[in-house]
Amino acid sequence: MTARNRLRPEVAESWQAKVLEEVGRGGMRPFTCAIIAALGYNNRTRYPRMAEKAYIAGDGMVLSWYKVSPMAAVQTFVLGTTVSFTGDLRLVADRCKLTDADRIAFFDKMKAWIVKDERVVPVTQETYKT
């Protein structure tokens, strides 16, 4: 019996339940913690856990903060490049057989978790001066 089977039918068939079940199969890896954090299911008393937000560094690496135990220092954790991280998310969506609408909702939730993109350079009037 899977954890999803113990939920109410309307909850068990939600894309969130499917995603959490899929990523939970691999143990509490940082990638799993990232998805749990992005979906808003972080448990403040359980470890390991990822921060409630992430950012993309200037070199295209997806970073977040990770804590393995209450006594451990907070570490900056590299989740991979934007390309590899997106590929990993696509793989999860494929394994869950998400519908197009659910896939969009999943990726929107993950995008919302990334609060800053340092690759983006604002265009100003100074950019065009020669």
Write the layout of secondary structure elements.
Blueprint lengths: L8 H4 L2 H10 L5 H9 L10 E8 L4 E7 L7 E7 H15 L3 H14 E4 L13
Parallel strand pairs: 1-4
Antiparallel strand pairs: 1-2, 2-3
Helix pairs in contact: 2-3, 2-4
What does this structure look like?
By secondary structure, the protein is of the alpha+beta class. It has helices spanning 9-12, 15-24, 30-38, 82-96, 100-113, and strands at residues 49-56, 61-67, 75-81, 114-117. It has a four-stranded mixed beta sheet. Strand 2 (61-67) and strand 3 (75-81) form a beta hairpin. Helix 2 packs antiparallel against helix 3 (30-38). The chain is globular and about 60 Å long.
Index terms:
130 residues, alpha+beta
Q: What is this entry, summarized?
A:
The protein has about 130 residues and is an alpha+beta fold. About 40% of the residues lie in helices and about 20% in strands.
Mean pLDDT: 82
Helix percent band: 40-55%
Note the main sheet: 4 strands, mixed
Instruction: Outline the low-pLDDT stretches.
Output: none
The rough form would be described as: globular
Order of helices and strands: HHHEEEHHE
Strand content: 15-25%
**Class by alpha and beta content:** alpha+beta
Total count of helical runs of at least 4 residues: 5
